[in-house]
Write a structure and sequence with these properties.
Layout (H helix, E strand, L loop, with lengths): L3 H15 L8 H11 L15 E2 L16 E6 L7 H9 L8 E3 L5 E3 L14 H6 L8 H7 L1 E6 L5 E4 L2 E8 L4 E4 L9 E8 L2 E5 L3 H18 L14 H4 L4 E4 L14 H9 L1
Parallel strand pairs: 1-4, 2-5, 2-11, 3-5
Antiparallel strand pairs: 3-4, 6-7, 7-8, 9-10
């Protein structure tokens, strides 16, 4: 009888053949995360293959090229409830932008394409890489996209206050700045960073269901591709280790100074430390 691990590995093979989707970790966040992780580890639920929702994602919207995976990169979508809008936008791009998985606010996992393949999800500018001293600055962004698996968490990201409520941010071309997007309902589930993170103090909170689904995916992929599970304190800011291709779990902000995903939510950090 096949083991659970082999069943997951075969699932990826079946899917790929049939499918047509000051920064850093702040002191207050560190202390909260540490307090959350002071519990004994217990046997946790494994990834249920049957729970993964396969998305009808066109072959020409990602690269059907199997590549060796050494990194996992965490993102959030900067979008409202539901993943349909994100997937529709990816389908409309010619650059083949997308991640293998998106996790909805309810914890449901949507797979656009096999983790053995790749799509553009980092968007690192060559000028930035050149300034960091990489001689292969013109091609390193593609290399990093090829060797990494991207996961999106459905979330608005950082928020702007209007009156007594918090709203998603929207660029105002006339004012040349971000303003509160008040056409949607105020965001009630928030996380605050007293000293700010990437220049912003308040973010939409990732749900417990999202963090648990993310944990299951990370355990599976780390085991499958031999990616270290060791927690990285420097994953919340641009990291030369990440840009150099070091094998680990990273965030989008590990690769770009203009990105704020994912935010260092205490129970997210606690989960990462528990792997």
């Amino acid at each position: 009888m096949k083991t659970f691990y082999n069943n997951i590995f075969n699932f990826d093979n079946i899917f790929k053949s049939n499918n047509k989707l000051s920064y850093g970790l702040l002191p207050d966040t560190k202390s909260q995360a540490k307090a959350t992780t002071n519990t004994e580890k217990k046997e946790l639920e494994k990834l249920d293959l049957n729970s993964i929702i396969q998305v009808d994602f066109p072959d020409n919207q990602y690269f059907r090229e199997q590549t060796n995976k050494t990194q996992i990169v965490l993102h959030h979508t900067v979008s409202g409830q539901g993943v349909d809008g994100d997937i529709s936008w990816w389908r409309s791009t010619v650059e083949r932008i997308g991640t293998a998985m998106i996790i909805g606010r309810d914890g449901k996992i949507y797979q656009c394409f096999s983790s053995l393949y790749w799509g553009h999800h980092l968007g690192i500018k060559s000028e930035f890489l050149k300034a960091k001293g990489f001689s292969d600055y013109a091609t390193r962004n593609t290399l990093l996209n090829k060797q990494s698996i991207g996961i999106e968490i459905d979330s608005w990201g950082w928020l702007i206050k209007d009156g007594n409520f918090w709203y998603p941010a929207k660029w105002d071309e006339n004012k040349k700045k971000y303003v509160a997007y008040t056409k949607v309902m105020p965001i009630k589930d928030i996380v605050e960073y007293n000293q700010g993170f990437m220049g912003y103090n308040v973010y939409e909170k990732y749900t417990d269901a999202q963090i648990e689904s993310l944990r299951k995916l990370l355990v599976f992929w780390c085991d499958k591709f031999k990616i270290p599970k060791t927690y990285n304190e420097d994953m919340w800011d641009v990291s030369m280790k990440a840009l150099s291709g070091e094998s680990h779990i990273w965030s989008h902000s590990s690769f770009r100074s203009d990105k704020s995903d994912v935010s260092p939510q205490p129970n997210l950090i606690a989960m990462l430390k528990s792997l």
